[in-house]
Protein: DNA-directed RNA polymerase sigma-70 factor
Organism: Streptomyces hiroshimensis
Amino acid sequence: MSKVEEFEELRPLLFSIAYRILGSVSEAEDAVQETWLRFDGSSTRPTSTKAFLSAAVTRISIDVLRSARVRREEYVGPWFPEPLLNDPYQDPARSVELADSVSMAALLLLERLSPLERAVFLLREVFAFGFDEVASAVGRSEAACRQLLVRARRHMEAGRPRFAADRQERQELAERFFDALKNGDVGGLRNLLAADVQLVGDGGGKAPQLARAVMGAENVARLLGTVYPWLVRIDVSFEPHEVNGQPGAVFRDRDGKVLHTMVLDVLGGQIQTIRSVTNPDKLGHLGPVADAWAVQRELKQARRQPH
């Protein structure tokens, strides 16, 4: 097998590691490309190509994350990961771990960890690497990696919900939610939302976004149920789609350009959190991006006109 063939076979795994460390599709793709350049420039073939490439992409991603964290501290409003519609890496034996670890909620929990803790946790818990491989990837002893994993597990378990919804339940709830949204059914929306539901948006200061999180079933249902029928009038549409392994949707303007994504966190048979990403810098990998400011102006104009 040629170098190119070996690399392409492992590309989905490398991207999945990098994305979970970085929470960014574009940065993960850059890390994978840099890994290829190192592999291609190496004069010797490693004993294990998978171990070599996994270690390389992990180290590159850790370095990128360290500098990214400084930028995230100055970010305007809440920071969310770039939405991922399809995870290229599939492993039937690890399907639950892979799906859980790519959710927005899990990626935001991972933000609490140091870059090293994050890498160790992902390689060991999600991708089931041996401690020798983890140690080699992060450049620490196995004993140090075990300590890092203990700390990482403690942080992750403290922030995790106790009762996660099963896939079927999530899907059925999401279908009812998006039907109610389409129909502007405020009461229907309210019935699906947890009493302390939060609606939060990430515009990064580059797109219209909520000044603060909208809290409570009544407020969230009224906002969504009132605004969306007006968006329909100016030809905004949406297509339900898994986003980061959770039920969600991609919203588009009348030209089919991506306006924003929405993802639902379901817990205890109700929707707990609704996260929307409108920052255009985080949507480019999904296709041409809409001018959200222009859509907002059109919406305001439509609402001023008599009907």
The first strand starts at residue 193 and ends at 202. The chain is about 55% helix and 15% strand. The chain has a mean pLDDT of 93.
